[in-house]
Amino acid sequence: MRNLLLGPILRLIPVGLVLLGIQNQVMANHPVFDVRLQLLLSMAAATGAVSSAEHGAVCGFILGMMFDLSSGQPLGQSALAYGVAGLAGGYLHGLSAVPRWWMIGIFTGLAAAAGEAATPVIMLLTGRDGWLNGGLVRIVPIVALGAVALSPLLCPLGRWSMRVRKPQWKVIPGDQAA
Amino acid sequence: MFSSLSRRRVVALLVLTCLLLITLDRNDNPVISRVRRVFAVAMEPFETAARVVSAPIFRAWNSFARYDDLARENERLRDQLEHQRGAEASAIANQLALDNLLALNRLAAAGNYPTLLSKVVGDAPGNFQNTVEISLGSADGVAVGMPVTDGAGLVGRITKVKPSSSVVLLITDPGYSVSAEVLMASTGDQPTLPLVPPISADPALPADPALPADPAAPPDPAAPVDPAAASDPPTTNDTSAATVQADGPLCPGVPTSTSTSSTTTTSSVPAIDPAAPPDSATTTSTTTTAATTTTTVASVIRETGTLSGQTGDKPLLLRFVKDTSGLMSLCVGATVATAGGSSSLAPQGIPIGRITRIQTMNESGSSAPLVEVTPNAKLSQLNFVAVILFLPNQPAPNQGVSG
To answer: How large a percentage of chain B has pLDDT more than 70?
Structure first.
């Protein structure tokens, strides 16, 4: 538990504050096709896509909590949705032993789409209906494409924030000889 | 890090934590409220830094990419401003007349409450929120629950207050709801009329120095100010300026999308009996169209319901409290305003919008019609708004003044 609290969270919270500032001031005021790209959601998805489902879920939970605290939504609502994104990214990461960079981008986009689509469902479960409508067809793909575009920046950032090391592959001398 | 916890346990722990927090927050836990306030203060420097860094970049980009659009818009706005100056004088006179009439009737109106002007500084960070951020906060006297308007009508209400900024929940959000009333004028020979400015030049009425001396009728200050419509002289109603797509019985006199232009001279003074309740205020109006003059005696019909948002660009939905006979006379184009009342979230008389569609049979099976209302305020282009310093169960500052 000590590692959990003192390890990644110490890095993730300052990174999250910076991303939240950009989300609130840049992404919120400059929508793409009337859809606001979700920086924190993309970060959670990217972290999952480069590490594991657990890391992605924890990262999504913390970033979602920060987003909820900032936006005034019920605390835990975005945390749950972003956790779904991180978890989905981690599961997709597990599909390939060594995912290529472009695969990580696709995983990030798919996981972000899952997280964004989960948001109105969670809102519905918490009693805020009206958002689960046809607008999702436009919102989810744009958010996913935004996450794909941001993944080259967010993947290394997520890996650093969660203290995840890149997998090192070493050639065993015996195998080389064989 | 997670060596001691399996994946399933981590996920279950996070989900349960989220559900617990949502439950606590929905019950207005004071600890969470305090954490939110502290977090808002902690976020201020990061948001300021992001704004300071990004603003010059976006300004430079806009100056490069949107120069032609801005030049055209500037030209159009200059032209509009010239026309607005002409309409301003009559609007002031009309406001004086309205104040006088409200004082006679001892009515509380939105104008009785002090307001604070504010700039819209931000939009909602998420795609599932209809909010804007304004530049006034608790330090300026803004409190949660206060209604917000722009020049055209109701915009929303304050839902979150920080020291130097506030969040406004827009009326289009599904979580927004306010009691509203449809204002129509009923006449003897016609079923309904849209509520038009109280206008008349009845010589039997005592002369009131506050009323406009010019028989030319100024626009109704409670009605939305359409820039295109306001650009015309006060005595001219260009029906092509403000149009309504009729999807239901159309109120007489409401311009449709057919582009026809007519010059109508109208003038009136409402005949108000101070003893009569406001709902039955009788208005004597003289309408002169071309060379024909018709006189009708109209009474204002008020039908009260609950107005709620439907997300995004969709119109608002008005559900009526009671299924009354007056609902049969609803018509497209009628004005919808806040109903007020002791428990209302907004004072009476703030214009909200106009009826654009009437569904006579709704899904719930009730015979009361379901009414769609298009807001007057252009919520996607808000620049400045006014916060009305009104809180529920708070009397109007000049309410109860003997006349």
So the answer is: 58
Largest Cα span, chain A: 64
Give the C-alpha separation, B401 to A164, whole Å: 71
B377: left (phi over 0), alpha (psi -120 to 50) or beta: beta
Q: For B14, which of A57, A127, A163 is closest by C-beta distance? A: A57
B271 confidence band (pLDDT: 50, 70, 90): very low
* CA-based nearest distance B54→chain A, Å: 7
Return the residue matching tokens 């400059």. Answer: A30
Helix (H) or strand (E) holding A48: helix A39-50
Q: How far is B313 from chain A (nearest CA, A)?
A: 10
- B284 CA: distance to closest CA in chain A (Å): 44
B-interface mutation test, from A58, A75, A121, A122, most B Cβ less than 10 A away: A75
What is the phi/psi pair of residue B325, to 5°? -70, -25
Give ipTM to 2 decimals.
0.81
**Residue B26 exposed, middle or buried by CB count within 10 Å (0-12, 13-18, 19+):** middle
pLDDT tens digit sequence for A139-167 = 999 999 999 999 999 999 998 988 887 77
pLDDT, chain B, mean: 69
